[in-house]
Amino acid sequence: MINIAVDNSIKITIETTVNAPIDMVWEAWTEPEHIKSWNHASDDWHTTEAKNDLRVGGRFVSKMEAKDGSFGFDFGGTYNKVRLYEFISYIMDDDRSVEITFKPEKDKTYIVESFEAEKSNPIDLQQKGWQAILDNFKKYVEENKLRGREK
């Protein structure tokens, strides 16, 4: 879904339902070791480092790189709202905002993620890229759950 805000910024919304309980979803979303396993839009990319200080005013950064070493960048930001098992919002280092809502539904978790589009890449490319990362997250959590990985 794509919306245009009052300030003419474009908000893109992506979503998924993960077949796992909220505590497992939250852990996979917020713990650096998990983030490194799912945070990529395609199989030729990976996250080599992840740091996460999940609190208001805390920072996160993921070092994302092409597996062939041809390109890489840091994706980071600062949290401005955190509600355990419910909601995370942050401002990316380029001043765009992101909001993620987690809605538990029995043994499933519905995730809605909205972010401000950037101006250098086409909207559909941004939407597809972020959705691919969210799809990787879903796959990672569900595969780990199926293997019985529970704390």
TrEMBL record:
CDD domains: SRPBCC_CalC_Aha1-like_4 (cd08897). This is Uncharacterized conserved protein, related to polyketide cyclase (CypC). Residues 19-142 form the Activator of Hsp90 ATPase homologue 1/2-like C-terminal domain. Signal peptide: none annotated. Belongs to the AHA1 family. It comes from Clostridium acetobutylicum (strain ATCC 824 / DSM 792 / JCM 1419 / IAM 19013 / LMG 5710 / NBRC 13948 / NRRL B-527 / VKM B-1787 / 2291 / W). InterPro entries: ASHA1/2-like_C, START-like_dom_sf.
